[in-house]
Write a structure and sequence with these properties.
Elements: E1 7-15, H1 22-30, E2 36-38, H2 42-46, E3 53-55, H3 67-72, H4 75-91, E4 103-108, H5 114-127, H6 136-140, H7 144-153, E5 159-162, H8 168-181, E6 187-194, H9 199-207, E7 237-245, H10 246-251, E8 258-267, H11 280-293, E9 300-304, H12 311-325, E10 333-335, H13 338-341, H14 348-362, E11 364-365, E12 381-382, E13 387-388, E14 395-402, E15 406-413
Parallel strand pairs: 4-5, 4-6, 9-10, 9-14, 10-12
Antiparallel strand pairs: 1-7, 1-8, 2-3, 6-7, 8-15, 11-13, 14-15
Helix pairs in contact: 4-7, 8-14, 11-12
């Protein structure tokens, strides 16, 4: 890829299981809070689900949306629009100065409008086709969130949707980086969203033995790297980042959080759900990101790990990182923030990119909660309390890996 422009982050937005905005989410993360709570829906008992808790961002949806938007958008699109609007406002962009043909949306979801789809099936089965909502198809489309954002901001440069399971929104950020770096866009609204809290996905993930079953203590259920980890915690939420060319941002006097230094995307070609235990393709994604950044492995000071709290996945990611960094891994501050948020699936990479950007902007690595006894097979410096990252130029990466063998990594640098 021939790059023409330096790419920077000028705006961030998030609605997460921790809080309704990006700053409040960051503050809660640094405070060591958990966003995992019991599900207060009657369907938990009705279907005798084995898992009774999740990370529930939808509890923070309030007056951010109009009545029509709530009625016409799937919950995943609602979350996406809230996060995108916050990021756009945070970036301080004058809409009158935006060239619509130079504005792109790169968005992601892992599953799409699953609540709409399954609710529509219930309506069809119980009440017949005449009672189905006319907006059912637009609401359930996986590209619904990207379309909602595109229309809200008048983006005419393209609105793309990336669906690569849990790597989806990191892929969207890598592609957004490419669109800005190569000159295809002045501004990209990038990120991801997910709203899969419904009895069917919850039951299906439980049937795979993928979810934690700590129903007695939800707040400590997500525990990456701990010897007692027993699966991930399903979460919903969304996060957005505004990417611009550096010259475009500087010309309008924008605040710059960090530089997007590079990105990498690879695939395992190994198994539909299990990661390659050797981690070779995952390692190659990290190396690609560093090569695009023009950086050495020794330049990395912080990693926001994928770290879902599954017995197999956490070890596989560790082996991939050890493969890349060797002994230098011992000196890298590693944060596993899904311990606080749960796993947002297609929104995970985006919110973890927001955390990585804020870690660099504030020069502090966020903590990994619920880690009481670290797995002896995972020999890394896992951050357990907020930690200062130091002075000078800093480089950090955020990892995402998804079912289907998808690997995506994005690198950020201080400015």
């Amino acid at each position: 890829m021939t790059t023409k422009h330096t790419v920077v982050v000028t705006g961030i937005g998030a609605i997460s299981p921790l809080a309704a905005t990006a700053p409040a989410t960051w503050d809660a993360l640094l405070a060591g809070e958990s966003g995992i709570t019991a599900i207060e829906e009657d369907w938990v008992e009705r279907y005798d689900l084995p898992v009774h808790f999740a990370g529930q961002a939808r509890r923070f949806i309030g007056d951010q949306l109009t009545r029509q938007e709530v009625k016409r958008l799937d919950p995943g699109s609602q979350l996406a629009l809230i996060a995108a609007r916050e990021a756009w406002s945070d970036a301080g962009i004058d809409e009158e100065a935006v060239v619509p043909e130079r504005l792109i949306v790169d968005w992601a979801t892992g599953i799409g409008g699953v609540n709409t789809l399954l609710d529509a099936w219930d309506t069809l089965r119980e009440r017949g086709p005449r009672r189905m909502l006319p907006m059912t198809v637009p609401m359930l489309m996986a590209n619904g969130p990207a379309a909602a954002i595109e229309m809200a901001f008048g983006a005419r440069g393209g609105a793309r949707t990336y669906i690569s399971a849990c790597a989806s929104s990191t892929e969207s950020l890598v592609e957004a980086y490419r669109h800005v770096a190569t000159g295809d866009a002045d501004i990209v609204i990038a990120g991801g969203s997910e709203a899969a809290l419904h009895p069917m996905p919850l039951g299906a993930f439980a049937a795979m033995q993928a979810l934690s079953r700590r129903n007695d203590d939800p707040a400590t259920a997500s525990r990456p790297y701990d010897v007692t980890r027993d699966g991930f915690v399903l979460g919903d939420g969304a996060a957005a980042l505004i990417l611009e060319t550096k010259e475009h941002a500087e010309a309008r006097g924008a605040r710059i959080y960090a530089e997007v230094a590079g990105g990498g995307i690879t695939s395992d070609a190994f198994h539909i759900t299990a990661p390659d235990p050797e981690g070779s393709a995952a390692a190659r994604a990290v190396i690609q990101a560093l090569e695009h950044a023009g950086a050495a492995r020794e330049d990395v000071v912080h990693v926001n790990a994928h770290a879902t709290s599954t017995p197999v996945g956490d070890v596989a990611e560790y082996h991939a990182m050890r493969r890349v960094f060797g002994e230098h891994l011992d000196g890298i501050a590693v944060s596993a923030t899904k311990a606080s948020t749960g796993h947002l699936l297609g929104g995970a990479g985006a919110i973890e990119a927001v955390f990585t950007v804020l870690a660099l902007a504030n020069r502090v690595a966020p903590p990994t909660i619920n880690l009481t006894e670290q797995d002896p097979e995972i020999v890394m410096d896992v951050v357990r309390e907020p930690r200062t990252l130091g002075d000078g130029d800093l480089l950090a990466i955020s990892n995402s890996f998804g079912f289907g063998g998808h690997n995506a990594v994005v690198a950020f640098r201080t400015v």
